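== Polypeptide entry ==
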Amino acid sequence: MTPTEELILRYAAKPVPRYTSYPTAPHFHAGIDGARYADWLAALPDQACLSLYLHVPFCDTLCWFCGCHTKITQQYAPIASYLRALTAEIASVAAHLPASARVRHLHWGGGSPTILSPADMRALGTALKECFAFAADAEFAVEVDPRGLDDARIAALAEIGLSRVSIGVQDFDPGVQALINRRQSFEETARVVAAFRAIGVGSLNIDAIYGLPDQHERQLIATLCQVVALDPDRVALFGYAHVPWMKTHQRLIPEERLPGLVERHAQAEAAADFLVGAGYRRIGIDHFAKASDGLAVAAASGRLQRNFQGYTVDPADALIGLGASAIGRLAQGYVQNETAIGQYRRRVEAGELATARGIALSADDRLRGHAIERLMCDLAFSEAALRHRFGSLAEVLRAPAAAIIAEDRDGLVTPTEDGFLVSERGRPFLRSIAARFDAYIAAPAARHSAAV
């Protein structure tokens, strides 16, 4: 075993969370209900800055790698029924908010939001603007499946204010695509990219994945060559999360054809080197952006944020989740809607908020969550910064920080006057380092994906 292999197995063998929240979603519980959520919404301050996440849990084909909450349908009737409930939830949630609250960011995710008909896209956009007050410069982002996406849907998104698209690619290699049940040509993807640029979309992100079955460095770099040829402003390079105990359809992927931890690490680092060489700045653990992009600017100035959409520049006072399974965050804690579409619809049609579970944040949660977020964004731990924000409570994290420094024999961190910086050698293990501050990590409620 080489020193690099030994390093990878020592730091990445234990699965850890992706830390898009803290506490992470497996620790949410049913003690947070619609009544509690209503109180939290009503307590938002005047002039609150809001971010809306709207979940469309439908696709027309099943991608076997998918870890999202989605339902496969070839019929439009279930989608239309869901949209009626979603529109009702939009009105219900908005009624609990201060009239002076302003939306600065809107994100449609899924599933595949582009499964909606053009008319329903327009109707949904209208419903949102009738119920919420949007800032003049609000960003509107949509996750896009380019397969079969027609000009009518692209035009509808433009009409309702689309400003950024996130296009799923995953891998362009036909052999890998066959093993994950996602056949998507470069030519079709390029057509959609050109169409969005033609209507004036100002920012374009492309998602790729490493760690897929039968995927090797050669195929991954070949895909990224094609991605770079499309000239995206950002590239998100995610590690495939194989969690068949949660997503049973992932059992369709033969585990023996998945790369191991050492190969996953090699793929991720080769891809990062390629993207940096192509002129992108490395952001956190899995994002890359042009130097002029807002994500890179925020990272350079310490303003980068992390939430359920990954890395973001969104500084909202509250994230409002709309739709089945959607998660929101307010100052008091996290809330999540019913995941089952039928139950979600019944709750909303009964005039209730669809909240099924969540968690109220303790002072310790806020401290650890902030420390983990800054570590994931800035690759830095500073006790002085934590003291400035949390006072003497910050002392709780002094011991785990000191242990990280004392136990580091591999150059993963560099000590500073009041903490440490994570080195480039340590960046691939950032989630494992952050887990040292996680008070819930040993709890039996959660199982996680590989750390690299």
